[in-house]
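Today's session is about reading a structure prediction critically. Students often jump straight to the picture, but the first step is always the sequence itself: look for stretches that repeat, for charged clusters, for runs of hydrophobic residues. Only then move on to the predicted structure, which in these notes is written as discrete structure tokens rather than atom positions. Here is the chain we will use throughout the hour.
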Amino acid sequence: MKEVERTIHLYRKVDVNESMEERHEKVMEGLSKLEAPLGLKDSEIPEIPDFGTELVCFYDAKNIKTKGVSIEGVYRWRGLKYVIWDELRYEFKITYKLIDYKKIIYDNLPKVINIFDPYVADVFVSPSYSIAYKESYKSEILKLKEKGLKIGELQDVLFTLSPVMYFNEESYNKLIKVPKEELLERLKGKAKGVMLLEKGIYIIFNDKADITYEEFVEMNNTFKPLLGLI
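Below is the predicted structure for this chain, in token form.
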């Protein structure tokens, strides 16, 4: 089992004191200064989208130099009474000839994170990997659900690690069960990379562009105990 599609997800809690227009202008100002493939330098900058009569609106973009990388943003209506998320997504195939995967995860993505200021971010490999992994741990997941816990990085329990992940202070304190100083010690010599960014911690568990399902499982089995996860 090997997948070539990759999606980078960045999720930010909607701030009711910041309008969608203000958020869009901040993000676009930052991306306009970043080079391809994740930035929009020398490329068309998306206009501010319009909610119309909906509670969500979208924009999409591509850097003129790397049209094989799609960029999509999602904004949600401000003022709702429950937690909602603005999103920034990148999609590409690791077989795309203009993709330097390691440069993306070691250099480009941390810069995007500092611009977007997300709650969490990850480089997602494939739904098939995640589904198969969870299927093999049905009993553990059932026990968590019986306790009333919701599974997922935007929920109560982080159950499946992605090869690259970022946590701001809030998400780290909620999802990770190990003090940060201790985690840094645990990850030494094991993780491929650990960076303390402006507002959170960025971890590269595996830097292989073509990670196999078996390597994905091994990665989870190795690092989840170090993060204090089930």
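Discussion point for the tutorial: The mean pLDDT is 94.
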